[in-house]
Specification:
Elements: H1 2-18, E1 21-24, E2 55-57, E3 64-68, E4 72-81, E5 90-91, E6 97-100, E7 103-107, E8 123-131, E9 137-146, E10 165-168, H2 175-178, H3 184-202
Parallel strand pairs: 2-9
Antiparallel strand pairs: 1-3, 3-7, 4-5, 4-6, 4-8, 6-10, 8-9
The structure holds 2-acetamido-2-deoxy-beta-D-glucopyranose (NAG) (7 copies).
């Protein structure tokens, strides 16, 4: 009983540390609160209420500031147009991105995809998804209003931690041949699983 209890406490602490937050635009609400869980699609079980705040975003796309707590993670940013619980069917990350480092990642402007035209006053929500090596995903959302007078973050309000880096994951057919023959199945299985997880989440 005692060892199990201690293991449970340790696991809960690890999970809480590994969760992430959207620092900007303002998160819909506290995804660490009772009743919320970042494991829940699409928005961590955080509901839109009368106290939900909307951040003004420029019509061509705005800033995104994340506080990330994993050694590394894949991440996706999706957009849903509408006011109440919109569908997140516009992806703002066209490639599979792999973020390395615990700390702040601030993208000064997430540019909207070609073909998405936004009018002044359009409400929308931003969904950020992080996906770990096992395929387990965490979710957080932020609600915005596109505005012709909104500006992006700049200068000291949008910086990356020095240890934070982002790489585009490239598909590769050379994985199995480039690994030693002692671990071919583990290496190839892991790699193909990661890429298919990312591909599925982008779509
Ligand atoms: C959001 O609403 C659902 C359904 O009413 C509820 O189960 C959930 O606990 C709510 N989330 C929070 C954080 O209160
Ligand atoms: C919205 O902003 C107000 C003022 O900063 C704050 O008191 C409130 O907690 C925010 N609402 C949410 C859901 O975070
Ligand atoms: C996204 O979903 C909304 C609501 O279901 C729908 O009206 C819209 O056409 C969809 N947009 C795209 C790009 O699929
Ligand atoms: C993602 O980055 C981590 C840490 O830099 C690395 O170990 C992992 O292999 C990368 N994943 C892919 C698919 O490149
Ligand atoms: C945007 O959402 C707010 C509530 O957050 C609402 O009062 C307003 O009417 C909405 N605007 C549009 C254009 O739907
Ligand atoms: C932070 O890193 C991302 C990914 O490399 C990059 O797109 C962004 O411009 C960087 N932010 C700043 C403020 O330089
Ligand atoms: C991987 O190999 C398949 C089959 O030969 C080919 O169709 C595909 O284009 C290759 N992908 C890359 C990224 O080279």
């Amino acid at each position: 009983m005692v060892p199990q209890f201690l293991v449970s406490v340790f696991m809960l602490a690890s999970i809480a540390n590994a969760h992430f937050t959207i620092e900007y635009p303002e998160m819909r609400g506290d995804s660490f609160a009772t009743g919320a869980s970042q494991y829940n699609y699409p928005c961590a079980n955080v509901n839109q209420t009368s106290s939900t705040n909307r951040t003004m975003w420029p019509l061509t796309g705005g800033s995104l500031n994340l506080d990330l707590h994993h050694q590394w993670t894949y991440y996706f940013v999706n957009l849903g147009l509408g006011t109440d619980y919109p569908t997140f069917n516009i992806t703002l990350t066209q490639q599979l991105l792999n973020e390395t480092g615990i700390g702040t990642l601030c993208v000064p402007q997430i540019v909207l995809p070609v073909g998405v035209t936004i009018s002044d006053g359009q409400n929308a929500s931003i969904q950020v998804v992080t996906v770990g090596q096992s395929g387990s995903a965490l979710y957080n959302c932020a609600d915005i209003t596109f505005s012709s007078t909104a500006t992006t973050l700049s200068g000291s309000s949008c910086t990356n931690s020095s240890n934070v880096a982002v790489a585009v994951v490239q598909a590769s057919n050379t994985t199995t041949t480039s690994h030693s023959t002692s671990t071919p199945s583990a290496a190839s299985g892991k790699r193909s699983g990661l890429i298919s997880t990312g591909g599925a989440a982008v779509v």
